[in-house]
Amino acid sequence: MSATTERVAPASGRRSHRPIVAASARRRRVVERDKRRSTVLTVIVWVSLAYFLIPLVWLFIASTKSNSDLFSTFGLAFGSSFDLFSNIGQVFTQQGGAFSQWLINTVLYSVGSAVGAAALATACGYALAKYRFRGATAVFSVILGAVMVPLTALAIPTFLLFSAWNLTDTPWAIVLPSLVSPFGVYLMRVYAADAVDDSLLEAARIDGAGEFRIFFSIASRLLAPGIVTVLLFTLVSTWNNYFLPLIMLNSPELFPVTVGLASWQASATAGGGGQVLFTTVITGSLLSITPLIVAFLFLQRFWQTGLSSGSVKG
Prior knowledge:
Blueprint: H1 2-63, H2 67-72, H3 84-93, H4 98-130, H5 136-147, H6 151-164, H7 172-178, H8 182-195, H9 198-206, H10 211-222, H11 224-239, H12 243-248, H13 257-269, H14 277-299
Helix pairs in contact: 1-14, 3-14, 4-7, 4-8, 4-11, 5-8, 8-11, 11-14, 13-14
């Protein structure tokens, strides 16, 4: 019996060892495959980062050059002198300091539009997500269809409508159209459906809270990441908007930065000594995007909670 047991034991040991070796080999292949995938993804991330950062680097370097260095040196190389501060001074003194007024106008248009659009989108998205009423599906379908309509297609009808109301060449011609954000309503509707739990709303109603109190005291806090997202989208969209102010505004003192810099660029390319404005336009472009970068860095902390986080954890 002992001899038989000795012969069987090694055989049994070999049978139990083979699945372990096979499993280890499979794990090694999975790890190697994951390494290859991570390398590819890393390369894609770095290429994407370079794609977005190189224009910003070029813009900063070009803002440090004089007009002669701008056309005689390589785009990503600094010129013979560092003229950034003198170029900034030229931006704020050109045309009687018009850039400062354009920058103030842009801030007012963008902040007013962003706050209003975020408030309307939040209220509408919350209502579509948490209330059941006749026609809710039809309303949401219309909003989805409006997302597909390009803004340029609405520019001329909007101009004719505001012209009939004598609102052209006024700040309202820029702010009021920007308050409507179909994509913001869609985003808040989808986000509110998951972020605000129905049981939490029912508990608040049982405690005697009204609908407005529930919305402002409970729902708005849970919807904060989505609200900030809509606010930033609208802020950037209005800040960079060019076509709508171009057709709505005639007075230079009402121009935003985009239209104002375009007018300088037009005078620079028209000749008659206007080439001096090339570095002025480039430096003005650098100054115009700086507030957007600051706003994003300041508001991104609201995203750290995660757009997928809900109010109740199961």
